[in-house]
Amino acid sequence: MVKKMTVVFHNEELYTDLKIEAVKRNRAASDIIAEAVQEWLDVKEDEELIPIINAALAEYAEKGGRPWEEVEKELEAAIKAREQPMMVAEKKKHV
Questions:
Q1: Mind listing the pLDDT tens digit for each residue in 33-88?
Q2: N or C: which end of the chain has fewer CB within 10 A?
Q3: Is the separation of the CB atoms in 45 and 35 below 8 Å?
């Protein structure tokens, strides 16, 4: 759905620069404005996430978080340990 909006430029130089840029890029000025607003919203969203990420990192450090590589090795070792008795039991069935 297309929505319309009127933008009032209080800075004539900014308006002129926008129009010139639109011509240079062969794009509508409204597309450039829409893109700029989207980028601004994305930055704001990222800024809102920073405190959440920092809190998660602090909790990770506080609770003794470990690197994934270390945990992954332990998981692989545990899986191998679980599978070994099965393999021995399977061999006995075939003998």
A1: 999 999 999 999 999 999 999 999 899 888 888 888 988 999 999 998 888 766 65
A2: N
A3: no
Alpha carbon distance 87, 93 (integer Å): 10
Residue 28: partners with Cβ closer than 8 Å, 6 or more residues away: 22
Run of H or E including 79: helix 68-94
Give the rounded percent of residues in the chain with a pLDDT score beyond 90: 60
Global pTM reads: 0.54
Alpha-carbon gap, residue 30 to 6, rounded angstroms: 10
What residue ranges do the domains of the chain occupy? 67-95
The rounded distance, in Å, linking the Cα atoms of 53 and 60 is: 10
